[in-house]
Each structure stands twice: as C-alpha cells, then as structure tokens.
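Exercise 7. Predict the joint structure of the components listed below.
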Amino acid sequence: MKIVILVLIVVSATAAPADFVLVAHGGAGNYGEMPPAAIEARRAVIIQAVRAGYEILSRGGASLDAVEATIRVMEDSGLFDAGRGAYYTREGVPELDAAIMDGRTLGAGSVASVKHIANPIHLARLVMEKTPHVLLVGPGAEEFAKSQGIELVSPYYFFNEREWNQYKKAVEEKKKTSALVREDEHGTVGVVALDQAGNLAAGTSTGGTTLKMPGRVGDSPIIGAGTYANNQSCAVSGTGVGEFFMRNIVAADICERVRYLHVPVDQAANDVVMKELVDQHGEGGVIALDRQGNVATTFNTTGMMTGTVRADGKIIMKGWSKTAEPVIVPAAK
Ligand code: ASP
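Solution:
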C-alpha cells in the first residue's frame, strides 16, 4: 500500500508543469502627465522585454540570465531612465547605475556613475562573475569594462531629444525658482525572476533621479537598498527616490521580514512601501517575488508599470494608474 501511495506522489509531482515567474517594472512615478501614446510605447517595450525573459525561463534557463536579458531590452529601448534613455545629471550628461544579484549564491555585482556603458546591467554581472568585488564605480568600472572587451560608447549614445528638452526646461525653471525640478520622474527598470530550479534573482538599472548632482549614487546599485535576492526569502527591485531606499534598506528589509517574521511577501512590501516610506514621504515602489512564486507589485506613487509572466504564458501588464484595467498578452511571439 505504502509503495502505491509513493508511486502516485512521484507521478503527480513530475506531471505538474514546472513553475517559473518573472516580473519587470519600468519605474514608479506619475503617469498622469504622460500622453497615452508614450504609455503605450513603454508598455510595448516591457512586453518585448518580458518575452525575452520568458523565452529563457520556459526552456529551463537561469533566473539570472532572464533578469539580465529582460533588463537589456529596456536599456536599449531609449524609453526608460536606464541605458540609452537615461536621465541627465544637472551637468547634462547621464551617469548610470545598475546591480544584479543571484539568490542562490548571494553573488552580487554592481556598477555606479558610469558614463560610457550601453548596458550597465551586463557590466554589473561581469563584476559579480569576474572580480572579487561587489561594486565598481566611474572610471575604474569603465577600465574593467574595457578589459572584458566591452566597447565604451560616447555620451552622445545617450542623447535623446525628450531628455534634452526636459533638461533645458529644468535649467530655465531653475533661473526662476533656484531648484532643478521636472515632472515625470520615473523610468528606472528592474526585474525579479524565479526559475524552474527554484532560484531567485533580481536586477535594477537606472540613470538615477532626474537632474541629480554629478557623482550622486542612488539605491539601485546598493545591494539591500534597491536590489536584493536571497533564496531564503525573496527577490526585490525598487524604484523611487533612492535616498529613502538607502536609508531604509528597503529591499533587504522586505526580504528579512519574509525570512525572520515569516510574513507573506505582499504584506512585507506593503508594510515597508505603504507605511514606513509613506511616513517619511519617500516616493517609490517595489516588485518582490518569493520562492513559492508569490508576487508583490507595490507603489505609493500614482503609477508603476509592471509586466508579470508565469509558466501559463500570459503576460499581465498593469500599474500605469491605480485603476487601469490590466492588459493581458501572450508571451509566445
Ligand atoms: N531609485 C532610482 C535612484 O534613486 C531612481 C528611480 O527609481 O526613479 O537612483
């Protein structure tokens, strides 16, 4: 009898479809000011990016590879505050930050304040895999990139008219108000993934906050602040005003609540983003994912666009407003 039961359990375990999950975000902020065509364009890129990650996970690939591939599509698009579309510093030149983390090994790599790297997420991964360090910054990071055969791009690679116009407008405003400000502050990109082997990974890539001081580093490349992954708890990528995420070690705090307090990942994300950050007026949001495939997409801004895909092959797009109906599209092209 015992043998029969055992056989049944084995059969049902192998018959279940292997599970995996990937969630991507395109930054927390105010989508209210954004023209519908621009929202649609961003949605299309996130769908394309999530498809790249899905393709890897569905054939049994690693969450780390899926995170990198998904982020690269968004970096290359020029539509987000990452890679080609990065926001400008107040000197008019983008400085980019990125991090990636492997929840299985706690391996982590980041780069900050790089000016000539088209895909900072890839360089972050090389820091993780090819150096004994976690974080490389500025010229040192770029020297390392060259040693790895990465071609350095001119700052003109990052030129885009939308950002340049925003920059000029903000500089004009500054003459009147003495502050450098702009309205649609969002566009950092991040991804969390769980692969069929049950391993979590997280990554984040950004040009930082708009019109930041040259040399300013945000939360995205700081492990535990804007990016974190640990198979013992969860994977998180944050977006928002990085100074708050650093002071509150947001990504690590969410994961440690899951790990030590045993609260569900959505409650942990909610308690940190909707209570602690809100109390401090820290704007932003997170995507979080645990090993059981539970997902939280939590933001205290008016929007945070996300795309989520599971083994069922449906990409669920939502978050450009709190009330927007989700759009569901197939993951297979
Ligand atoms: N968190 C990023 C930073 O502070 C910016 C953002 O997510 O919008 O650099």
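Discussion. The first strand starts at residue 21 and ends at 29.
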